[in-house]
Amino acid sequence: MKLLLAARLVPTLLCAISAGAHAAPVTYRIDADHTYPSFEGDHMGVSVWRGKLTKTQGTVTLDKVAGTGSVDITMDAASIDFGQRQLNNWAKGPEFLDSASFAVATYRGTLGDFVNGAPTQVLGSLSLHGITRPVALKILAFTCRPHPMFRREVCGADATGSLQRDEFGLDMGKTLGFKMDVLLRIQVEALAE
Asked: What's the pTM value of the predicted model, to 2 decimals?
């Protein structure tokens, strides 16, 4: 009897283990209420200005077993927020982002260098102000766990990178000695679909 039960149970267990080993990629929808790409840049060599984009959407696809994944994010250029209304209005205008002509910025990339099922970098391209350039991100922290309210897996990450804003046609202040390097700090949360 025990041998008969074992003979029936072993194939079932092997199928379950095999299915787990070949898990399909999971798509996660960006949680716009918990995702804010932020940046900081030079202000006349006197201080550092910080801001963020407050409206984002997109997806992250992740296969933890295979160690692969991708990112596809869209950001509303008119949602730029420095915490100062006058500066926000100027940054949206034709002298800088020109959000009427270039309404969205996009970031598309590939997750890489997985360690224990978690990516440690994103190699991608940023399209901003009508120009697309490569931008790599280093993932400082990455965690997935069951969401207590939605009963689905949620993943979150903290990433950093940098860019030269004049490479995107945003060279305001360059002739006045403003530094063109911009530090990116991005926190993101995404829910499994």
From this structure: 0.84
The token pair at 173 is: 């202040």
The whole-angstrom separation of Cα 50 and Cα 38 is 7
Give the three-class secondary structure for 99: coil
Residue 10 identity: V
Quick check: 71 and 119 in contact, CB under 8 A?
A: no
Domain 24-192: which CATH class?
Answer: mainly beta
The model's pLDDT over 74-105, given as tens digits with 9 standing for 90+, comes to 999 999 999 999 999 999 999 999 999 999 99
Query: Exposed, middle or buried: residue 192 (CB in 10 Å: 0-12, 13-18, 19+)?
Result: middle
Domain chopping of the chain, boundaries: 24-192
Which distant-in-sequence residues (6+ apart) come within 8 Å of 1 by Cβ? Answer: none
| Mean local confidence (pLDDT), 98-126 | 96
